């Protein structure tokens, strides 16, 4: 599954790990994360993430 990186703080969202503290279960694709989710490191929205090359 595709990983995504925060353009602000370089946090990497790994779908295999999810974001359990943010309510995102392991195995959740980035596209399936609710729009209201925020980066657990710096708090920006999904629109500030880009696919890891």
What does this structure look like?
The chain is globular. A hairpin with a 5-residue loop joins strand 1 (4-6) and strand 2 (12-13). It has no helices and three strands. The mean pLDDT is 97. It is mainly beta and 53 residues long. The chain has strands at 4-6, 12-13, 49-51.
What are the salient characteristics of this protein?
mainly beta, three-stranded antiparallel β-sheet, 53 residues
Brief overview, please?
It is built from no helices and three strands. The chain is an all-beta fold.
**Annotation field: number of helices:** 0
Count the E strands. 3
Low-confidence region ranges? none
Q: How does the major sheet shape up?
A: 3 strands, antiparallel
- The geometry reads as globular
Blueprint (SSEs and pairs):
Blueprint: E1 4-6, E2 12-13, E3 49-51
Antiparallel strand pairs: 1-2, 1-3
């Amino acid at each position: 599954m595709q990983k995504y990186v925060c353009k602000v703080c370089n946090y990497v969202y790994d779908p295999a790990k999810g974001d359990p503290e943010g309510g995102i279960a392991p195995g959740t694709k980035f596209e399936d994360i609710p729009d209201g989710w925020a980066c657990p490191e710096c708090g920006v929205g999904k629109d500030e993430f880009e696919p890891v090359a």
